[in-house]
């Protein structure tokens, strides 16, 4: 349990640094629009109550369509499943 819930400050720093680099490379300002999606699947697969994970398409369906059609809108995907990244490339 302690291993699974440990603070991974190095990972938090890596995500923060990636976000900063991405923002500067795309000229994203504080006025830019971004939707953050967190797709968790590993704990859903371990859940004995039968909880299933959702495809990325289900998350996208819940997003504002006006934002999705805006070329200045970005989606920041956080996930523990590489398959979710592959699915996100369809959008």
Counting DSSP H or I runs of 4 or more residues, the number of helices is: 5
Helical fraction equals 40-55%
Q: How many individual β-strands?
A: 2
Low-confidence stretches: none
SS class: alpha+beta
Radius of gyration: 15 Å
- Main-sheet strand order equals 1-2
Shape: flat
H-E order: HEHHHEH
What percentage of the residues does DSSP assign to strands (E)? 15-25%
Concise account of the structure shown:
With 91 residues, the chain is an alpha+beta fold. 44% of the residues lie in helices and 15% in strands.
Would you kindly provide a written description of the structure presented here, covering whatever features stand out?
- The longest helix is centred in the N-terminal third of the chain and has 17 residues.
- The protein is flat, with a radius of gyration of 15 Å.
- A two-stranded parallel sheet has the order 1-2.
- The chain is built from five helices and two strands.
- By secondary structure, the protein is of the alpha+beta class.
What's the topology here?
Elements: H1 9-25, E1 33-39, H2 42-46, H3 56-61, H4 65-69, E2 73-79, H5 82-88
Parallel strand pairs: 1-2
Features:
91 residues; alpha+beta; two-stranded parallel sheet
């Amino acid at each position: 349990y302690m291993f699974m819930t440990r603070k991974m400050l190095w990972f938090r720093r890596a995500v923060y640094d990636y976000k900063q680099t991405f923002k500067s490379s795309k000229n994203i300002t504080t006025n830019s629009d971004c939707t953050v999606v967190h797709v968790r699947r590993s704990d859903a697969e371990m859940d004995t109550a039968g909880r299933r994970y959702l495809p990325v398409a289900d998350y996208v369906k819940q997003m504002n369509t006006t934002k999705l059609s805006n070329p200045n809108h970005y989606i920041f995907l956080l996930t523990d499943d590489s398959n979710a990244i592959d699915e996100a490339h369809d959008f």
